[in-house]
Structure formats: structure tokens, C-alpha cells
Specification:
about 325 residues; alpha+beta; NADH Oxidase; five-stranded mixed β-sheet; 10 helices; about 20% strand; globular; Nitroreductase/BluB
Length: about 325
């Protein structure tokens, strides 16, 4: 085996696992190309959510999550990744170039993270609280700091502000027909190409018990674990606000979700509170450094009930091109 060029099958396995990453509305807005021992990550422009995400920020955050999933998978496969981020500048859809070294030495925790990629899912039901028995993983600060991203654990006193940010977003979106059409296109049904099936969306009763969630269509994922949501909310923020920061925020998002999953916690990413300027400013006021909030994560515990259905993923053949390099856009 070449010490710098992984076998094509290794790349396929790693990309397939990378694409288990969460993405806004499960839109999976990524494309990969592998040629001459180099893997490149691009945005998939046709999967931009024009009403939900007109700036493309959540698209890039989603791709960043996939990039971190990829690195996690490669480590378990004994490959290290050297990543060049945004190699063609901040206006390009070319988000990363990955080259390889066959010198990774995975530890047992790396295999736990690999298993978490397969088992992680977004749970939109109410959560029980983080506790001494199921605490937040001690490693969260470290894994986030590696991406130059700041992690803030919000106190329960911040809950009314979070609810206000949610209400602000919901009020602005209520009569936005383009947004509503887009939301209902992606959520409540799914195809092999993406979307959120009804079985992965909370029932109306459970949805109404989470005061800080996006107002998705009612689904069929029953089995609430508590009367109201008692989750802990984490905020990922950056010092500046550009495409490179969005990408790193997505990498940090992935790292937090996987660590929490290994720790036995349930998670649900929240991005609706950062979509509009007004609601994003409410969240920014909660941060000690007044950074730019990129994503929030609801974290908590659930009883041993059936997990929500995992959302479908595009076949690896539709997201990975082998042997030909894309022309950057």
C-alpha cells in the first residue's frame, strides 16, 4: 500500500461515513472528488436552501460537519488528514483539499467516535437534564478549541432569551410563503436523496414541549421523555464571520455531537435562531465575548425508548467522483 495514497475503497468508506453528518433539513449539500491521492470537498449549489439560508452559511456549516466526520473516520482507518481549508478563497465553492498520511495511531476512543457516527441522530423530542450521572463530556472545550471556535454552555437563566429568539424567527417566517414551501418540501417526507421523514420529526405534542425548537411540521416520532424540555444549550461561536469560520464551526459542531453521543447524551442541532439578524443578535448578547453565533446544540438525556428514525443519505456514488477533479466555481 502506498504510504501517502489510500486505496480508493478506503476513501469511499470514509466519504460514506462523512456523509452521515447532520445538515440543514438533511439537504446534504456536499460533493467530493478524489484524484491523484487528493480528496476535495465542494458545496453542492443545487442544494442551497434559498429562503432558509440565503447567505449559504448553514450550507458551509453542514459541509464542515461532514469534513470532521471524514477526519474522524480516517483516523479509525489509520489515516491522518492534512486539510487545507477554503483553498481558492472565500467566494469559492471549493471548501477543502485533503491529503493523506498513513501514520494515524487510533486509540479506543477514536473507535468510540467512529461508532457514534453510525448511531448519532437528531432527536427533536424534549430532553431530561444533563446530570452528574450523564454529564457533559470533559473533552468538549478541547475539541472545539482545536477549530478556533468558542463553546458557551448557557445557564438556565438564558432560556427566556432563547425562547424569545425562537419566537422572533417564527414570527418573521410565519407568512413567508417561500420559506414555508421550502420547509414543507424538505421536512415531513423524504426520498433517497434527502429530507426529514415524518418518523424523525416530533409529534405535535412533543414539539410543543420544546420551546426553543424550529417549528417543523408535526411528525410521528412519539415517546416523549419528560413533560417539558430540560436540555442544556450549547452555543458555538467564532471571533469573525466568514466562510472559513463557518467551515470550522461545522467541524466543531460535528466534534461536539460525536463526543456527546459517546457520552450517552441525546442531541439536536439548532440553527433557526441564527438565520435572521434580529434573532442572531439576541443569541450574541448571551455570549461573554460577543462573538458571532454559528450554531446551537440542545443536549440532554432520554429514557430508553425507541430512537427517532435516522434520516436517509444519498448513495456515495452520487456524492463522490473518483479519477476526475472538479473545476472550482
Amino acid at each position: 500500500m502506498n504510504s501517502t495514497i489510500p486505496d480508493e475503497n478506503v476513501v469511499r468508506i470514509a466519504v460514506d461515513l462523512a456523509c452521515r453528518a447532520p445538515s440543514v433539513h438533511n439537504s446534504q449539500p456536499w460533493q467530493w472528488t478524489y484524484a491523484d491521492g487528493q480528496l476535495d470537498l465542494y458545496t453542492e449549489h443545487g442544494r442551497v436552501l434559498a429562503s432558509t439560508d440565503p447567505s449559504g452559511r448553514q450550507l458551509v456549516v453542514s459541509c464542515g460537519a461532514a469534513l470532521n466526520h471524514l477526519q474522524t473516520a480516517l483516523t479509525a482507518l489509520r489515516w491522518a488528514a492534512d486539510v487545507q481549508r477554503v483553498p481558492d478563497g472565500p467566494r469559492s465553492g471549493h471548501l477543502a483539499t485533503i491529503r493523506f498520511r498513513h501514520d494515524a495511531r487510533p486509540q479506543s476512543h477514536d473507535f468510540d467516535l467512529l461508532a457514534a457516527i453510525r448511531h448519532r441522530h437528531s432527536d427533536r423530542r424534549p430532553f431530561g437534564p444533563v446530570s452528574v450521572k450523564t454529564p457533559l463530556p470533559a473533552a468538549l472545550d478541547d475539541v472545539v478549541r482545536r477549530q478556533d471556535v468558542h463553546l458557551t454552555v448557557l445557564r438556565q437563566e438564558a432560556r427566556p432569551a432563547l425562547a424569545r429568539a425562537t419566537e422572533t424567527t417564527a414570527a418573521a417566517r410565519k407568512y413567508d410563503s417561500a420559506y414555508q414551501a421550502e420547509l414543507h418540501w424538505w421536512a415531513g417526507h423524504s426520498t433517497a436523496q434527502g429530507g426529514i421523514p415524518a418518523e424523525a420529526l416530533a409529534t405535535a405534542e412533543n414539539r410543543d414541549r420544546v420551546d426553543i425548537g424550529r417549528r417543523f411540521p408535526a411528525g410521528r416520532d412519539a415517546g416523549a421523555t419528560t413533560e417539558t424540555d430540560h436540555s442544556t444549550v450549547l452555543v458555538l461561536s467564532t471571533a469573525t464571520d466568514g466562510r472559513g469560520e463557518w467551515l470550522r464551526a461545522g467541524e466543531a459542531l460535528s466534534a461536539v455531537l460525536l463526543e456527546a453521543t459517546v457520552g450517552g447524551l441525546s442531541t439536536c442541532p439548532l440553527t433557526h435562531m441564527t438565520e435572521l439578524r434580529q434573532s442572531r443578535e439576541i443569541i450574541r448578547e448571551l455570549l461573554p465575548d460577543r462573538g458571532f453565533p454559528q450554531a446551537l446544540i440542545r443536549v440532554g438525556t432520554t429514557e430508553k425508548k425507541s430512537a427517532p428514525r435516522q434520516t436517509p443519505r444519498r448513495p456515495v456514488e452520487s456524492v463522490l467522483s473518483v479519477g476526475r477533479r472538479r473545476v472550482p466555481r
